[in-house]
Design brief:
There is one protein chain. With 124 residues, this protein is mainly β. It is built from no helices and 11 strands. The strands form 2 sheets. Strands 2, 4, 5, 6, 9, 10 and 11 form a 7-stranded mixed β-sheet that branches. The protein is globular, with a radius of gyration of 13 Å. The chain starts with a strand and ends with a strand. The model has no long low-confidence stretch (mean pLDDT 95).
């Protein structure tokens, strides 16, 4: 089970830090992804760790502004979001899968486990 938190309302240029906790499993055995869904749009990839690598992948839209980190001792992951823009608004979801292949790390439908989402609103 995944539990995402940390969303909120922030002005453009501000920062938020999202957290995702896992129960019933350990993040070290899973590929972990962050996805977001804006109103009226499809869910899109934000960032992910593939389970066999130590460096995260980022969508071009967030590269250089977002940082995905893991605290495996606490079994938590974090998405530090800086220089937020109004277009970053949406519900952010963490997802996990323990059989994901590398080519699917950006594909939301290939993740088996999902958190409930946390809303991020960036005002202009």
């Amino acid at each position: 089970q995944l539990q995402a938190s940390g969303g909120g309302l922030v002005e453009a240029g501000g920062s938020l830090r999202l957290s995702c906790a896992m129960s019933g499993g350990t993040f070290s055995a899973y590929s972990i992804g962050w996805f977001r869904q804006a109103p009226g749009k499809e869910r899109e990839f934000v960032s992910a760790f593939w389970r066999k690598t130590t460096a995260p992948y980022y969508a071009d839209a967030v590269k250089g502004r977002f940082t995905f980190s893991r605290d495996l001792g606490k079994n938590m992951v974090f998405l530090q979001m800086n220089s937020l823009k109004p277009e970053d608004t949406g519900v952010y979801y963490c997802a996990a899968d323990n059989r994901l292949i590398l080519s699917s790390v950006r594909v939301s439908k290939d993740y088996d486990y999902w958190g409930q989402g946390t809303l991020v609103t960036v005002s202009s």
